[in-house]
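#structure-requests
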Amino acid sequence: MNEDFEIKNKVAESGLVNFDLSDLIPKGARKALDLKDFLWEGLILKEKDFREKVAEINPEIYRESFVYIHNSADAIVPLWAYFLLTAKISETAKKVVFGTAKDLETLLMHDAISTYDLSSLKDKRVLVKGCSETEIPENAFVELVEKLRPIVKSLMFGEACSNVPILKN
């Protein structure tokens, strides 16, 4: 073996900064709250019964959780019902949203990206990791590009060995 032979890590020497969006995913339990469980026979909202059921909720169940309120019943629910449920659990929950589990993840990533300090990436060559163990909402990639576009030297997507150039400033 040739002793003059040196193995070089070209990726490490390139000055490329790897950015993994999955690092921004907020930690915490995700919980669902189905309005159907508060409706009379799962179909009709009776105000008195609804208020009684909301009063019975133990908000500690939702402590430090991310909660999505949804309605699996084919019933029309007045907007004030969402107000009551949210008011009951929002003091203990980390975040409460209306929608699906996917909607919750999209909003959580929006919040994470909008508050994340990207200043360390100014004038850098940034590679946004393409594969992750955790599903990342597509909108997170769109929002990240919007925030990175004006500050990075270049932006790529994928892996160091096979990336897709997105832009150069």
